[in-house]
Amino acid sequence: xxxxLSAVESLRFQLPYVAFGSRQQTYEALLHSHPESTAPPEQPxxxxxxxxxxxxxxxxxxxxxxxxxxPFSLWDDHVHDFRFPTPEERKWxxxxxxxxxxxxxxxxxxxxxxxPPNPIPLTVACIAATFIPAGSNCPYLTTxxxxxxxxxxxxxxxxxxxxxxxxxxEKQREAVLQALGRLVTVxxxxxxxxxxxxxxxxxxxxYSTRSLPGRVGGLLTVYHHSYTPFWPLACQSRxxxxxxxTVQDTTNYFLTDLQTLCPGVRVECGVTCxxxxxxxxxxxxxAGVKLRNTDSGDIRLTVSNHGFINSDEVYHPSxxxxxxxxxxxxxxxxxxxxxxxxxxxxxxxxNGEYFQAQSPNRLIRSTEVQNHTWCCADGMxxxxxxxxxxxxxxxxxxxxxxxxxxxxxxxxxxxxxxxxPTAGSIREGVCGAPIVVxxxxxxxxxxxxxxxxxxxAWALSPCLDxxxxxxxxxx
Length: 475
Prior knowledge:
CATH topology of the largest domain: Thrombin, subunit H
CATH class of the largest domain: Mainly Beta
Number of domains: 4
Mean pLDDT: 88
Number of strands: 32
Low-confidence stretches: 35-50, 236-245
Helix content: under 10%
Largest sheet: 13 strands, mixed
CATH architecture of the largest domain: Beta Barrel
């Protein structure tokens, strides 16, 4: 496993509430605590690196992280729902983590303590765990309206019930959009199990207090209607002339033992503008994966489109200080925030290494992504961060006022809960990093990191169906 030659590798260990172990440390804990739950260690060969399991199970709800010390589970597979702990189990949690308070807000557990464990487990009793300092508040999602009225009838048939915890199907989400479209102008619908958050477009219409149904498809539904977006998201690229003290991995990996580039390394736009001028400042982000088109045979590298919005030149690790131009962008997918780089013949790139994240092997469709799946991304300014798939979002593309957009034109995005440095707030520069299912199996890519909520623990990324439909596959 390739190690970052940078302080970024150990960034999370400076932050005790997100100091989860390395893959090697977690694997050793797994062998010690659950020796029957994993295959024996693999021996490395000249062409094969050993794999490090970090989960006892990672197949949706009930997943158990290797560092999870609880001798019980608060997920009940028989009823497919969470359960509250017994008095003995509650005491065990308080004692094990010297907790001052424990909040159960399914599918999360928030543990307030002055003494966070080291390493931090990503689950406790098979529940996604967030450790917070004493005196902190739990990070709940909130909307800005009181339109929701649970006494109003559900706009869908009583026989139409959405799953409480699982991701609704495309057919179910289309039915929800059609039902809501008769009541409001929908900007987006967020399915964050077990609730629905509807973003209403600003089209001049107004709504009175408690005038909209509080349940849709049987699920609690709330509404957001404001000039301030529900997701106060900012693109997480870094303009390198700002806050120069920010930690980044500026290693030139051509000059290391690896002697090639891989997902997670630093890339930066050139100073030559797309319109022929010159840029005053450049932007740095994280390299994605190497793809091949099954129709044309073309080979390209993915990068964050917004990180190269003003330039087609791609450098590693920098456009200055001895950096190398590795290729140029010749195709862009604006809605996916993905740009494709045609690498120069002298540029080598392998998908076989991805630092602390699992090596990426294939793109998967939105219909293949399961709620509560744990993923990992490794950004050049964040190191490893974990992302739990919390739900799915359907949002409308830009449209003129009064135009109804059919569901087939809505953009589908994954919604993630973040676990990583700065208490879940993603470090600048992680955009473009592949988000890979952390199951040590087929290296499924669910998206490329695009947006992180400023100061919060949430992120979004477009699903990859369009890229797959155009014939792109991981080499």
